[in-house]
């Protein structure tokens, strides 16, 4: 059974209310032990369809790459923002995720007139917005943002692997896989790791 496609039904209803530049916003990387949290904001062009949009988690890596190319070529506007591991440690992951989303929204030129945000409300943004639970499944523009954010972050983690190949960032992208945890136990923390994401028995053994 194929994963359900996200539709533009909500965006179409919002256009009927007078909104014309509707941006979907989503982020990836909240649950990782290393690397940034990355957000994307995408304004889909009603005249240029992107068939097959789905939540990035429901797509293969090849499917995400294909849709990333379509979204970035056909969208009316798109932008990404991120918050570094240091910012995550300083702010906490929730606030850092909101910061990354705000940076993505601020990168859209011209600015949107409505935001559809997966699950959250972004503070300090003077644009009407609506937080949607499971928005990456319900909204095509949020699904598009999830794909752009995921592909962007995966590429960043491959770049981190090229700098330091001890942890396997190119394979697990910073998530807490057994391979990653074993590498942490062997090598300790790198500059890319988030100090505030503690695995008590593992990290205490490394630092104690």
Number of E strands: 5
Oligomer: single chain
Basic shape: globular
CATH architecture: 2-Layer Sandwich
Major sheet strand order: 3-2-1-4-5
- How many helices? 9
In angstroms, what separates the terminal alpha carbons? Answer: 49 Å
The CATH topology turns out to be Nucleotidyltransferase, domain 5
Name given to the CATH homologous superfamily: Ribonuclease H-like superfamily/Ribonuclease H
Q: How is the biggest beta sheet arranged?
A: 5 strands, mixed
Helix and strand string, N-terminal first? HEEHEHHEEHHHHH
The low-confidence runs, each spanning 5 or more residues with pLDDT under 50, are 200-208
Radius of gyration: 18 Å
User: Helical percent range?
Assistant: 40-55%
Quickly give the structural class: alpha/beta
**Mean model confidence by pLDDT:** 93
Share in β-strands = 5-15%
Write a structural description:
With 208 residues, this protein is of the alpha/beta class. It has nine helices and five strands, in the order αββαβααββααααα. Strands 3-2-1-4-5 form a five-stranded mixed β-sheet.
Structure summary:
This protein has 208 residues and is an alpha/beta fold. It is 45% helix and 14% strand.
Topology summary:
Elements: H1 9-16, E1 22-28, E2 37-43, H2 61-74, E3 77-83, H3 85-91, H4 93-106, E4 114-118, E5 129-132, H5 135-138, H6 140-163, H7 169-172, H8 178-187, H9 200-207
Helix pairs in contact: 2-6, 3-4, 8-9
């Amino acid at each position: 059974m194929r994963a359900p496609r996200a539709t533009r039904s909500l965006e179409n209803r919002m256009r009927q209310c007078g909104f014309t530049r509707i941006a979907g916003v989503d982020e990836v990387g909240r649950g990782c032990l290393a690397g940034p949290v990355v957000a994307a904001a995408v304004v889909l062009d009603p005249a240029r369809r992107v068939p097959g949009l789905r939540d990035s988690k429901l797509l293969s890596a090849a499917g995400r790459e294909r849709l990333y190319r379509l979204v970035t070529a056909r969208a009316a506007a798109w932008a990404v923002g991120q918050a570094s591991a240091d910012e995550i440690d300083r702010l906490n992951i929730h606030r850092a995720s909101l910061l990354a989303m705000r940076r993505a929204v601020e990168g859209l030129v011209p600015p949107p007139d409505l935001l559809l945000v997966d699950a959250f409300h972004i503070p300090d943004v003077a644009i009407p917005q609506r937080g949607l639970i499971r928005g990456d499944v319900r909204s095509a523009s949020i699904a598009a943002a999830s794909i752009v954010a995921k592909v962007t972050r995966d590429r960043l983690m491959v770049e981190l692997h090229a700098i330091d190949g001890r942890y396997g960032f190119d394979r697990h992208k910073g998530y807490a896989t057994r391979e990653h945890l074993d590498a942490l136990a062997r090598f300790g923390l790198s500059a890319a790791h988030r100090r505030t994401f503690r695995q008590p028995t593992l990290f205490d053994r490394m630092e104690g």
